[in-house]
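To: structure subgroup
Subject: Chain for Friday's discussion

All,

I'm putting the inputs and outputs inline so they're searchable in the archive.
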Amino acid sequence: MDKTLVVIKPDGVRKGLVGEIINRFERRHIDIEVIEFTKLKKEKAQELYSVHEGKPFYDDLVDFIVSGPIVLMVLKGEEVIPVIRKMMGATDPKEADPGTIRGDFALDISQNIIHGSDSEQSANREIAIFFPELV
């Protein structure tokens, strides 16, 4: 079984979309290995987004993810990373297809509801940040 990290970002929590998003995963028979409702400290956010350090949007990305509560999940299933990426939709909600999480609920690339690991390597690195016992 493959694993991935998924984060429902502060805008998703604020908009009351946690249940809807989790329901979408459950309807696809994706297993939730662990789930945690939390508010990130800046250091953890910087570690999560370290691959973007030095890019013009890095500071805004970190500031946004620590701006409110989030939901951290480790999800597992066959080919879970590409399945989740397709369910999330394009990073820019303007390009996301209807029926995807971002296509249905997000309006702006800087507040796009959800984060999901983009590769097995990223998933392992990101899961280790929050749930090292699972790697």
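Points worth raising on Friday:
The mean pLDDT is 97.
Helices lie at 10-14, 18-27, 42-48, 58-65, 80-88, 101-105, 120-130.

D.
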